[in-house]
Amino acid sequence: MRQIIAMGGGGFSMEPENPLLDKYIISQVEKVPKVCFIPTASGDQANYIERFYEAFRLLPCQPSHLSLFEPEFDDLESFLLDQDVIYVGGGNTRNMLLLWKEWGLDRALKKAYEKGIILAGLSAGAICWFEEGLTDPLNAPLYKLDCLGFLKGSNCPHYDGENKRKPSYHQSILEGKMKEGYAIDDGAALHFVNETLSASVSSRPRAKSYFVKCVNGEIIENEVQTIYLKS
């Protein structure tokens, strides 16, 4: 069974006092899972890695991380294929994908996905799994980025959290620059099983997910039924 859990925003890095989404991710594994954090998009920022360990050491799992800037393993692919969950952090999606390709991590992640290892993440770690994502370079307009394509269509994270997101996503789809796809609020996550949407869950009562498409020259935004993960 192939699984991807894409968060618009949330988890330990955005909601340190609210572990509901992180708990949901590890609960999909029937044993105490090995969880590997990949912080490439942040430039393997030390503080980000420390916060991951602070959060996940409190959860029933075995946390680890994979750094491309200071790699600790000779065989990165073997290390990844020994995990139960691969959790990708936020940051610069474009740089992350370029580094992954250079190191062969894109191919390793594809093997992990096909093996049944759960792929998860927020922001950059959410859009990377789709064909296309809406990314936000510093002080520049948002634009489409081609991603790994494990999931069809496009993705827009931080849908309610950044005021540029919704209008930019709508305009890109309306003009045919991006494929139709899923928009995810901060605190919401989409759970795909075998490339089909299985559930939308949230750590906040009002956080939602949406399927956005263009019909007859107009944007149609269909809300996805979302389950609030009460603690």
Would you write up a description of this structure?
- This protein has 231 residues and is of the alpha/beta class.
- It has one domain (3-228): Class I glutamine amidotransferase (GATase) domain (Rossmann fold).
- Helix content is 28%, strand content 31%.
- The chain is built from 8 helices and 14 strands.
- It has helices spanning 11-14, 20-26, 46-56, 76-81, 93-103, 105-115, 124-127, 165-174; strands spanning 3-7, 34-38, 62-65, 85-88, 118-122, 130-135, 143-146, 151-156, 181-184, 188-193, 196-202, 209-215, 218-224, 227-228.
- It has an 8-stranded mixed beta sheet, with helices on both faces. Strands 7-6-8-9-12-13 form a 6-stranded mixed beta sheet.
- Strand 8, helix 8 and strand 9 (181-184) form a beta-alpha-beta unit.
- The longest helix is centred in the first third of the chain and has 11 residues, at 46-56.
- It is globular, with a radius of gyration of 16 Å.
Number of strands: 14
CATH 2nd-level architecture: 3-Layer(aba) Sandwich
- CATH topology, anyone? Rossmann fold
Report the CATH C-level class.
Alpha Beta
Please, what is the CATH homologous superfamily?
Class I glutamine amidotransferase (GATase) domain
Keywords:
8-stranded mixed sheet, Rossmann fold, about 230 residues, 6-stranded mixed sheet, about 30% helix, 14 strands, alpha/beta, 8 helices
